[in-house]
Amino acid sequence: MSRPQDPPRSFFPFGNPFRMIAPKGTKLPPQLLAVLSDFEATLEERLKNLIPKSEDEVVSLSWMTSAMQALCESHNDIKSLMTNLELPVTDWDEKWIDVYLDISVKLLDICIAFSSELSRLNQGRLLLQCTLHHFGSFSSDQLFQAYSSLDGWRQHIGSKNPRIENCGSVLDNLAGSSDLPKVKKSAKGKVLMQAIYGVKALTVFVCGVFATAFSGSTKNLMDMDVADVYSWAPTFKGLQNLVNEEIRVRFSSGRFTVLNELEAVDLSVRELYPIIQGVVDTIETESLAKTVEKLGRATENFSQGLDLLTKEVDGFFQVVLSGRDALLSNLRSGATVNDHILRGNKDAQVVN
């Protein structure tokens, strides 16, 4: 992971795609308004639950796990909303279909990138466990083996993941397509598009934080301007400002990473590394034992956090994939859908 030198990403070169004016046109009937209100109230509650209670929660693997859970639940809510609206896919405007499929393919790309980074971190965890295993005794041979494993960890964790490095362009495309199609005649369509907009704002924010934490650079951190006409907007802005500001403060102080559990491991490694680096005969056994114990606790917390987050990222991938597959299946069976939509989206490929 590299230390960032990037300025705050507070603007977009071609205007802010998240600036969305209050919906106009078709007035929502009371029943649909209630459906939308319930959806947005649930979204706001999830945003509130993601507000860290202290700076120590930014950015922890447990917070990232909760954020990914919120994404899974919100995207599942979109699928439930489609059912509740009783809006058959065959009645969808072509632009709505394009928006949904475009979002889904970009999210699959991002999930693949995140999964690859979690796999890389898990490989590094094995090196830490090897290091701890070699500290079963403090013989010269075992200390040499521990030193070798620890050196391997430092080289591995300091390397870059090309998929994460390329994640920024995918996020740019996802954010750049955030202007949703205007809905003039369909009240149900307006509810659907407004709900998708809210979930998309949450998605881009969370994915931006993930990409920032994994890359060690603020270049992927997103500052989105959401219109105050949405009931969840104030909560969203509060969450975004708090998390983004803390991340920037940490990076500006020269920290190796903003991931709390990884930072704890790195601090323990820094303490341990010089102790065993070529000065075996002068090692104080008691001091070494305490430092090894500290590294063991940090490694265990890191391991548990990785396991939980990996499970949630895999789950989110399946949520997005299942929703996309369901829509494509319905499109193939719909007689009123134009053939070019089917051909265009059938050939869409997830970037590996």
UniProtKB/TrEMBL annotation:
Keywords, comma-separated and alphabetical? Membrane, Transmembrane, Transmembrane helix
Q: Name one GO cellular component term.
A: membrane
Kindly give the membrane topology term recorded for this protein.
Single-pass membrane protein
| InterPro entries documented for this protein | ROH1-like (IPR008511)
Q: Transmembrane segments in this chain: where? A: 191-214
Is the keyword Transmembrane helix assigned to this protein? yes
- Cite a single Pfam family from the UniProt record: ROH1-like
Compartment(s) where it occurs, according to its Swiss-Prot or TrEMBL record: Membrane
The record's comment on protein family reads: Belongs to the ROH1 family.
Its recorded name reads BPS1-like protein
Instruction: Name the source organism.
Output: Medicago truncatula
